[in-house]
Amino acid sequence: MLFFVIIVTAVLYIALRSPVLMENITGGSDFKDVKDIQKEIHEYSGVSPDRYMSYITNMDNAMNILRSDPTLSAQYLYQALEDLRNVALDLPGGDSDIPQELAEHAKELGRLFESYIMQESLQQGIRFNPAYLNDYFITSKDQDE
């Protein structure tokens, strides 16, 4: 019995200390590409912590509810993107590229997550009218990725 406990403890220790091994065991994390963009956006979290947290909360809700209700997920997405753009409202006046950078991140995140919503809506037979994908045309660069 002691041998079994030692083996289980060793396996758990190795799995928890090695994120790559843990992702292989659990199948990885959902929305890795979305989370990569969120890592880039995180540098703006100090500009307006309250608005940033609202963005994070709504984005997490959008990801968590996507499979059960794509329509509600889209509503959370759009609120998250509005919150993200509003982070720049707390900047002092002056010449800053931050509002434009946040708008670009919001646009990129909107297109990416709407593709997830579109895919889930199609699988469930639900109509979805995207806001960001409507004006987006697939180019040869996009197809190569």
Written account of the structure:
This protein is an all-alpha fold and 145 residues long. It folds into 2 domains: 1-28, no CATH class; 31-144. The protein contains 7 helices and no strands. It has helices spanning 2-17, 19-26, 32-41, 49-65, 70-86, 98-124, 140-144. α3 runs antiparallel to α6 (98-124), α4 runs antiparallel to α5 (70-86) and α5 (70-86) runs antiparallel to α6. The radius of gyration is 19 Å and the shape is flat. The model is unreliable at 20-28 (pLDDT under 50).
Task: Present the secondary structure layout.
Elements: H1 2-17, H2 19-26, H3 32-41, H4 49-65, H5 70-86, H6 98-124, H7 140-144
Helix pairs in contact: 3-6, 4-5, 5-6
Offer a quick outline of the entry.
Helix content is 69%, strand content 0%.
